[in-house]
Amino acid sequence: MNKILSTRIWPILVVFMALATLNACHSPRRVLKAPLKKADENFLLGKMANSEIKYDTYSAKASVSLINAKNRKTELKAQIRIKKDSLIWISFSPLLGIEAARLVLSADSIKFINRLDKTYFIGDYTFIRNAFGTNVDYDMVQALLTGNDFNQYENESFRASVDRQEYRLTATHRMRKRREARQKETPTVLVQSIWLNPESFKIVRIDLREYNDENKKLSVSYDDFVTVSGQQIPTMLFFDLWNAGIKTKVKFQISKAELDEEQQFLFKIPENYVKMK
């Protein structure tokens, strides 16, 4: 676990690309007997937007399982707190131990503490782009953690279809909205498919990669929805990440979640900690 926490921040970030919530009022998927009627993309995009989680703050506890390409399994406990469009705070600990690592993401920065070897990292998303050749950003992480869509990317390139018993939205050139694009930033073009439950219009699966990059792909599935503050939130999240043919699997199982409760986002680096190289 020390190796994972200290030298591979990216898998941890991918682990975060999803999150969910509470044991109550489970809404299992229903098998529809009648064929789905076709619907256009504007109708489905509107329904998807209406079904998204609306919140100012989000918090949850989760059991996290990570399985690497060698089928080696790592299990952790996580506490997740989100201040919408502002901060993502995540604390990791062994199953029966004290905190091992803490991560804070903002729109412009990444902060990470590894308490196991007393090291820290402070930087921006350039580190991720240079080290791993991917343009992950705050909006993506926040959306994937909550089961929502990316709100800083345009919707004009989506096309609608029916895939078995679910609606599917597919975009081959989805780009960041102009007003959200940053100067000197390499434009990110996404190839993305979104599957929607035909009754709730909640996102149940996402396939995602960057245009012209077949080596890195992410597939996320959401299941076991529950009602929290009148909203449907997934409690099981499954992530499959492919990087140059190497697959990493991550599962989140949520035991508790709250919406719009007051949260603290503490992050302090002890004086004796050393900056990661």
Give a written overview of the molecule:
There is one protein chain. By secondary structure, the protein is mainly beta. It is 15% helix and 42% strand. The chain has five helices and 14 strands. A 14-stranded mixed sheet has the order 7-8-9-10-11-12-13-1-2-3-4-5-6-14. It is globular and about 60 Å long.
Structural features:
277 residues; mainly beta; 14-stranded mixed β-sheet; 5 helices; disordered N terminus
Helix amount, in percent?
10-25%
Largest sheet: 14 strands, mixed
Estimated share of beta-strand residues: 35-45%
Q: What is the count of β-strands? A: 14
Radius of gyration: 18 Å
How far apart, in Å, are the first and last alpha carbons? 19 Å
Shape designation: globular
Structural class: mainly beta
Strand order within the widest beta sheet? 7-8-9-10-11-12-13-1-2-3-4-5-6-14
Number of helices: 5
Q: What is the topology?
A:
Elements lengths: L1 H6 L1 H8 L24 H11 L5 E11 L5 E11 L3 E7 L7 E5 L4 E5 L4 E5 L2 H7 L5 H9 L12 E5 L2 E10 L13 E8 L6 E8 L5 E13 L2 E13 L2 E14 L14 E2 L2
Parallel strand pairs: 6-14
Antiparallel strand pairs: 1-2, 1-13, 2-3, 3-4, 4-5, 5-6, 7-8, 8-9, 9-10, 10-11, 11-12, 12-13
Short note summarizing the structure:
By secondary structure, the chain is mainly β. The protein has helices spanning 2-7, 9-16, 41-51, 126-132, 138-146; strands at residues 57-67, 73-83, 87-93, 101-105, 110-114, 119-123, 159-163, 166-175, 189-196, 203-210, 216-228, 231-243, 246-259, 274-275.
